[in-house]
Amino acid sequence: VRNHFAQPRLDARSWRLHIEGPGGQTVDLSYDDLLTLPAHTVAATLECAGNSRVFLVPTAAGAQWELGGVSTATWTGVPLSAVLEHAGIHATTGEVVLEGADNGPIRAESPPIAGSIHFARSLPMAKALQPEVLLAYRMNGAPLPAAHGFPLRAVVPGWYGVASVKWLTRLIVTDRPFQGYFQTLDYSYWERRDGLPSLRPITELQVKAEIARPAMLEVVPAGTLYRVHGAAWTGESVVSKVEISPDAGLSWAPARLLGAPLRNAWRLWEYAWPTPARAGRYTLMARATDAQGHVQPLQRDRDRRSYMINHVLPGPAHMTGCCWRNHHLGRHC
Ligand SMILES: Nc1nc2c(c(=O)[nH]1)N[C@H]1C(S)=C(S)[C@@H](COP(=O)(O)O)O[C@H]1N2
Ligand SMILES: [Mo]
Fold this sequence. Notes:
- The structure is a single chain.
- By secondary structure, this protein is mostly beta strands.
- Helices cover about 5% and strands about 35% of the residues.
- The protein contains four helices and 19 strands.
- It has helices spanning about 30-35, 80-85, 125-130, 325-330; strands at about 15-20, 25-30, 40-45, 70-80, 95-105, 115-125, 135-140, 140-145, 155, 170-175, 190-195, 195-200, 210-215, 225-235, 240-245, 255, 255, 265-275, 285-290.
- A hairpin with a 5-residue loop joins strand 1 (about 15-20) and strand 2 (about 25-30).
- The longest helix has 7 residues, at about 80-85.
- The chain is globular, with a radius of gyration of 21 Å.
- The two termini are about 30 Å apart.
- The structure holds ligand MTE and molybdenum atom.
- Molybdenum atom binds next to loops.
């Protein structure tokens, strides 16, 4: 769960989704209205753009995620395109702003933004109209839990979690680019064009593998066959390869991909590791590649600020073999 404000309490009976069209027309939909529209189910991995932030060197402000800022669920709801269609909106250009009921002050900015603001994000129409982009009211076959956006949330497969606005109360279709807080000052990165850095909202997930077992700093027996396993995901493609290095990046061997590839959902993998005969400290690394040829980088790109953290961990060479977790906690090894 990743929330920026206190979790709002919404009652499905009084709740409405307020839709504002480009010509100023408005439509209000109730929870029951949404249930009458044809339902779709998609499996999607949501990763917070700040996942793995604790491993950044130098340390960066923000939620200090280790590896847990990512999850996969099945989501059931109505495609956003069908909801817009139902509201009589046929725009194919411009964007749609998604606003949540949650709101509060922003203290991080100096000078601060006056008063309270709502969590809001926009999607360009080209993404908004993709059939897998849902307004979801069920998660894993049960009603959407309050913490995950009850009664209605967006699910934007292939994009970082920030796009999947929870506790939706308003959609605004507009031809003016939305410049809200959560896609300009926050959740944005530097893109260099013609040598000029400019801030762009974070969108597509970057290819990434995570090791689930062994856990960080886990002690494993020497001279045995250990089952290393984890998950790998990417943006608008599928994972095609995961490689493991048992020696801090000197050599790489393929992991076995499990199950069938599923667009927008992570792929589990495993690797049988013959652990070294001699006890000691060893560094295991995982690296994923997707079907479009994107490979996890070995180096961190500072233009990404503190988001889109998909370089191969444990990261900078000087940290390799050191107990970097303690390092981040300000302790010595
Ligand atoms: N309304 C609202 N939607 C939101 C957020 C929020 O704070 N408020 N956080 C976003 C972020 S940054 C992420 S990573 C995902 C997390 O989704 P989850 O809590 O269901 O895992 O929700 C997104 N949607
Ligand atoms: Mo996030």
